[in-house]
Hints:
By secondary structure, this protein is an alpha/beta fold. 31% of the residues lie in helices and 24% in strands. It has 10 helices and 14 strands. Strands 1, 2, 3, 4, 6, 9, 10, 11, 13 and 14 form a 10-stranded mixed sheet that branches. Strands 5-12 form a two-stranded parallel sheet. Strand 1 (44-49), helix 2 (54-64) and strand 2 form a beta-alpha-beta unit. It is globular.
Amino acid sequence: xxxxxxxxxxxxxxxxxxxxxxxxxxxxxxxxxxxxxxxxxxxxxxxxxxxxxxxxxxxxxxxxxxxxxxxxxxxxxxxxxxxxxxxxxxxxxxxxxxxxxxxxxxxxxxxxxxxxxxxxxxxxxxxxxxxxxxxxxxxxxxxxxxxxxxxxxxxxxxxxxxxxxxxxxxxxxxxxxxxxxxxxxxxxxxxxxxxxxxxxxxxxxxxxxxxxxxxxxxxxxxxxxxxxxxxxxxxxxxxxxxxxxxxxxxxxxxxxxxxxxxxxxxxxxxxxxxxxxxxxxxxxxxxxxx
Length: 290
């Protein structure tokens, strides 16, 4: 009987181990606050974050499960900031971000760059404009340029479509295009107040595809023939031009974790960074991180 009790006690202690290198133990032996890893951590991975990164991770999860069918990978696309927070507080073993981490976040998290993603400035395919300068794009998104005729198009009002606050795509685009200012230590968006806000890449694409005078920005990997990617300063948004550093609107795709990835998460991340995983990155139109 004593042996059985000892065995049960050891088993109970084992399930309190948490993921991402933080076992949550205290001097008093209190229960850890993290909910990311439980007794089934070896067969379940919670992945939370960027709506730009999630389609790629979903494809990779499906491929990974062909050789590891016992591991269930739950993916929630709720935005980069939410994914970073989930990794910080331990409610996800892996967070997804489509923007660079802030210094305060880097101090708390381990990051893995899995891909580089160009951000395409897109219009409706019926729009006759093929190229915009960086200054013209800035003027359009600030609301200073309001009509397509001002940039070589037809006499139609410009409809600006942006992502929601907290979107990694929006953060990266506004940072690269200098569409923010700082006040009292906080960044403030300079984008026109009357811009249409969409809560995902898919919603942006739908708005652009159905509004002939619209302009927005999209992760390059989700651009299809329902929208048209514009050249910027005469440079097309292409894999080649990203690699040779002539197309400069680009950002990283990151996976993040508090501390270290647990065993199950590490195996999945290792697959993503393998030759097979990075081939999937390139097949989806992104740039390999290797």
